[in-house]
Fold this sequence. Notes:
The complex is a heterodimer of chains A (615) and B (72). Chain A is an all-alpha fold. Chain A has helices spanning 6-9, 44-65, 71-76, 83-92, 97-110, 116-119, 123-139, 145-152, 155-188, 192-241, 243-258, 284-302, 304-311, 316-337, 339-350, 380-388, 393-429, 435-462, 464-478, 481-490, 496-516, 540-565, 596-613; strands at residues 517-519, 535-537. Chain A has a domain at 34-270 and 302-362 and 376-406 and 585-613: Sodium/glucose cotransporter. Chain A contains 23 helices and two strands. A two-stranded parallel sheet of chain A has the order 1-2. By secondary structure, chain B is mainly α. Chain B has one domain (8-71). Chain B is built from three helices and no strands. Chain B has helices at 3-6, 10-30, 46-71. The chains are: A mainly alpha (615), B mainly alpha (72). The A-B interface holds A 45, 48-49, 52-53, 56, 59-60, 63-64, 66-69, 72-73, 77-82, 85, 213, 217, 220-221, 224, 228, 232, 236, 239-240, 314, 387-393, 396 and B 1-7, 9, 12-13, 15-17, 19-20, 23-24, 27-28, 31, 37-38, 40-42, 44, 46-47, 50, 53-54, 57.
Amino acid sequence: MLASGAIADGDASRVVGPQSYPPTAGRRRIGALVDLVPVTHLTAIDYAVMAMYFVFVLGIGFALRRSTRTSSDFFQSGRSLPPWVTGLAFLSANLGAQEVIGMGASGAKYGIATAHFYWIGAIPAMVFVALFMMPFYYGSRARSVPEYLKLRFDEKTRTLNAISFAAMTIFSSGISMYAMGKLFNLLLGWSFDVSVLVSAVIVLAYVFAGGLTSAIYNEVLQFFMIAFGFAPLVFLGLKSVGGWSGLTARLTEEAVAKGFAPGAYTHAWQGMSSASTNPLGVEWFGLVMGLGFVLSFGYWCTDFLVVQRAMAADSMIAARRTPLIAAVPKMLFPFLVILPGMIALALTSTAGGIIPAKLAANGQPLLDSAGRVVMDFDLATPMLLIKLFPEGMLGLGLTALLASFMSGMAGNVTAFNTVWTYDIYQSHIKKNASDEHYLWMGRAATVGGILLSIAAAYVAGAFNNIMEVLQLVFAFVNAPLFATFALGMFWKRSTGHGAFWGLASGMVGALLHHGLTLPNGSTPGIKGGFFGQLHTYPSEMAQTFWTAIVAFTTCVVVSIVISLATTPRPDAELKGLVYSLTEKPQDQGLSFFQKPATFAALVLAATIALNLIFL
Amino acid sequence: MSGEASLDLRLPIGGLFTVLGIMLAGFGLVTGGNTAMYEKSAGININLIWGVVMIVTGLIFLALARRGAARA
């Protein structure tokens, strides 16, 4: 979930979710807002485009209001949505504006290697959750991911997961609002307070009225807005820079000037054998295990924000197809969101002026140790948009950005209201109330969630350090999650005590690893090393990936040891919850080409082909 | 249950894209002679071109929704 704010850290952390790892270098201070002269202003046609979009957004909420009658309608869309809708929402729930902006920033910083966050950091996990985990999520009839933990393990494991997840959703939603208010203040001079409040009211209106269905429908709408807002940006950008060959030529000069291999920006795998020879500062093993396995599987396979979309599908086969359908646009999205950053960098190196300098506290451009100006990569994509789009299209492009900020908020709020109502309120506060009561509570939780998000947005603005610490805490909390789910689903011997203590010790393991290591060039503190300094990593990203690997391993070992020492539940109770005790989905009646496994094989083959093309 | 019965998502997608497409293409037609304005977009009247693309996309969604409704 969370987006810890790629916009705040200018890095790729959003991809697998902020929760997944602490952000990397160059985090922008999100302290007091500075009043600057806006970069541009919108004209009547731009505002008309924006207004029309919101008419449709609110219209969808209004149209769904009457059909949202039960708590199942509100929290689970009545498990009635077709797979193309849940599939695109599955993708879109993750494709917040922070992702769009963060990927552009990383494109400008690391080049096409940023696509690893998609091709390694997402696709394999999406295929895995579709084929192997969806049968348990959907088949167990759990209403949320924490509820699956309750069915499989016990109440304490569920509650640990539910509370940390609920806190994270609020935090992410607040960060999303804060980032939106700040960006639009900078670009257009909009008042921070007004943009936060107006967008909160719009999100509140459509989620309150139509619940999860409303949020999902708007996510799909937002998906198309992003695709149609960014495709012409890439088209015009490539045209301005002289096509792909022009882009390659300019980025080769840029790479040589910075001392990387000539192909560093335009090849995904060059120099990955060692951390020192590629711009990511990570070696292939850390990348594949840390990002590709632990972080990515932890996010796509256990995060309720995305899994909730698949659980709203109208059948088991639709639920299993959901992540696969999402994987197809996912593997192509690097061309829409990473290329703009690369184009902005290419245009900046020659024409000058697209990516602005990062400003120090005194308002002067920040210089690095070599005396070069540090670029504010977070602004690469928005500035390119402003540079290339005339009025009219500019309205469309900025509406697409605004839309994705808001659906990021809505996605978190719908995940929050469900986990709050089912996993916290119904299981600990009021057990046997009527369905109307839980529906009412869901709507109340929506209001509460939005109010808390607004508060979080202001806390983010006022106390940057608190947010950094929280982000780090969430990264520790999430790192071991996938181990718990994998053991629960595929090893029937694992027990509730094993799961709970495995999770807890995985979190401690992450904390210890972070506290005992430090990325090159950082001082002890939030970046690590606060317990001492056993090891130095070449980059923050490498440290992050290894923190995840340590947390995962600790969780696996402790879970196994404690499970073997405690009493397992009888097999009969675990039917439908554990792989070996559940009937395999037969997919009978489906032709070869309709089977999810065939679809999955095609997705993987296409991903490998993309890696080979950009080798 | 809700979902399908209440609102076919293809309708609002098709509607929104058709309306936005008409707005952009219309604006592109009106401003077509303004070469200074389209200098930033490499001399291309992107409003007109992209507006037409969005109209076509919108109409495809509306046609699919109509076909879906006829079947049901």
